[in-house]
Amino acid sequence: MTFHPFDFDGQTLQARASGALFWPERRWLIVADLHLGKSERMARRGGALLPPYETLETLDRLQAEIAATDPAVVVSLGDGFDDDAAGRALPDDVCDRLRAMAQGRRWIWVSGNHDPGAICQRLPGDTAAELRDGLTLRHEAGQGPDVSGHYHPCIRLAGQRRRCFLAGRDHLILPAFGAYTGGLEVTDRALAVLVPQGLAIACGARALPVPVGMRRRA
Question: What is the pLDDT of residues 169-178, one digit of tens each?
Answer without folding.
Answer: 999 999 999 8
